[in-house]
Write a structure and sequence with these properties.
This protein has a domain at 9-180: 3-Layer(aba) Sandwich (Carbamate kinase), CATH 3.40.1160. Helix 1 links the parallel strand 1 and strand 2 (41-46). The chain is globular and about 80 Å long. Helix 1 (22-37) packs across helix 3, helix 2 packs antiparallel against helix 3 (69-93) and helix 11 crosses helix 12. It has an 8-stranded mixed beta sheet with strand order 3-6-2-1-9-11-12-10, sandwiched between helices. It is built from 12 helices and 20 strands. 35% of the residues lie in helices and 25% in strands. By secondary structure, it is an alpha/beta fold. It binds aspartic acid (ASP) and magnesium ion (MG). The site of magnesium ion has 3 residues, from loops.
């Protein structure tokens, strides 16, 4: 045995589908055993089995529609505790030395925000010590403990963030995320059948796609990976094919390709509602009053447009988007503000979709907005709002036209599979 150099550590994560039943748990164990046989110590993060977290939440809601957030975390965190124990047993049964760890045992210190806690620090010492005795540390994703010792969860889908944070803390250059798709696609392949798998995607592009509703990676995991320079390899747990690498592309061949093909992906997000405010006085301080009221209600607005009043018109209108489940809160927060301002109406429209093109070269490539708008209008959708940034251009369109618009935009930027 070589005592001079510790074994290289690999950080990997298997999602809920990959550990969905006992047969699959055995397959995960077999795959992880190969990594051990190759001479690695494995930091293995797992999610709760299948849809069991959803089932736990549903059970809580049978008691109350608004469960206490501390108790909900206590409940949800049990899902991962089931899977770490079973995966560890499967590994041990195959003769692999393995041990399970809750988030707290694995050194995850978070802030105290139940339900969406942020990681403050990961103490790598417990796992490093464990690797002196075992080959695999099986860590519960999605959970941690705060400074008071309270159990917390990291937000739905947060196991990805656990895995990437562990990779960073253990000094691993890469984190492999094994999931039920074989990588990141130009758009959702369930909606656009000719969507193509990307070999490489930049952190900044992935952050936009993750935030815009491409449900493959927890957005915070990408943020973490970018901050600590951890490469993410998203790949299928059911095959050995290479998936998609999420990394920094600046200065690489990949970045040069982006100038020729600046649009990397198209995202469709139907999780927002549009809030319309009409008939408010056109005076200084109006926007400030409305958005302060929203802020106090804990609602953050995304796209914002303000209409220009016509000549002789002293009334103003504006629209913005908010997460769908906060639409009622937004309306309730804005209404009293309007009364104080001397009039106006506020309403919510849930039948909207946000369609975005994403790519790191978008801000430096002229003509893309025109091509996007042309494709959207050819599909018959009316553009209601527009927003742009360095890495994306988004439009709000009616939800019932979103599917056609998505396909049209995907085609317009040549993202579909090309016939050989
Ligand atoms: N089990 C948690 C969830 O369903 C965390 C995760 O799967 O990443 O949200
Ligand atoms: Mg997930």
């Amino acid at each position: 045995m070589d005592h001079e150099r510790p074994r290289p550590i690999v950080a990997v994560k298997f999602g809920g589908t990959s550990v969905g039943d006992i047969e699959r748990i055995r397959k995960v164990a077999a795959r992880v055993q190969r990594m051990v046989d190759d001479g690695h110590a494995v930091a293995l993060t797992v999610s709760a089995m299948g849809r069991s977290t959803d089932a736990l939440v549903a059970t809580a809601r049978e008691i109350t529609s608004r469960p206490d957030r501390r108790e909900l975390d206590m409940l949800m965190a049990t899902g991962e505790q089931v899977s770490i124990a079973l995966v560890t047993m499967a590994l041990q049964h195959q003769g692999v030395r393995a041990r399970s760890f809750t988030g707290a045992q694995a050194g995850f210190l978070t802030d105290g925000q139940f339900g969406y806690a942020r990681i403050v620090r990961v103490d790598a010492a417990p796992l490093r010590r464990a690797f002196e005795e075992v080959d695999v540390a099986v860590v519960a994703g999605f959970q941690g403990v705060d400074a008071r010792g309270e159990l917390t969860t990291l937000g739905r889908g947060g196991s990805d963030t656990t895995a990437v944070a562990l990779a960073a803390a253990l000094g691993a250059k890469e984190c492999e995320i094994f999931t039920d798709t074989d990588g990141i696609y130009t758009t959702d392949p369930h909606q656009v059948p000719d969507a193509t798998k990307l070999d490489v995607i930049d952190y900044d592009e992935m952050l936009e796609l993750a935030a815009l509703g491409a449900r493959v990676l927890h957005p915070r995991s990408v943020w973490y990976a970018r901050r600590y320079g951890v490469r993410i390899h998203v790949r299928s747990s059911f095959s050995f094919a290479t998936g998609t690498i999420v990394t920094r592309t600046a200065g690489t061949q990949e970045a040069r390709m982006r100038t020729e093909k600046p649009v990397t992906g198209v995202a469709l997000d139907t999780s927002h509602a549009r809030i319309n405010v009409v008939g408010v006085p056109d005076e200084p301080g109006v926007a400030a009053a409305i958005f302060s009221a929203l802020g106090e209600a804990g609602v953050s607005a995304d796209m914002i447009i303000q209409g220009v009043p016509g000549a002789g018109d002293s009334r103003q209108q504006m629209s913005f988007t908010v997460p769908l489940d906060l639409a009622d809160d937004a309306v309730e927060a804005v209404r009293p503000a309007l009364e104080r301002l001397g009039g106006g109406e506020v309403s919510a429209d849930a039948d909207v979709a946000k369609l975005s093109i994403v790519g790191i070269a978008i801000g430096s490539t002229p003509g893309l907005a025109g091509r996007l708008f042309a494709a959207v209008s050819r599909s018959g959708a009316n553009i209601e709002m527009i927003a742009t940034s360095e890495v994306r251009i988004s439009v709000i369109i009616p939800k019932d036209r979103a599917q056609e618009a998505l396909q049209a935009v995907h085609d317009a930027f040549g993202l579909g599979r090309t016939e050989a």
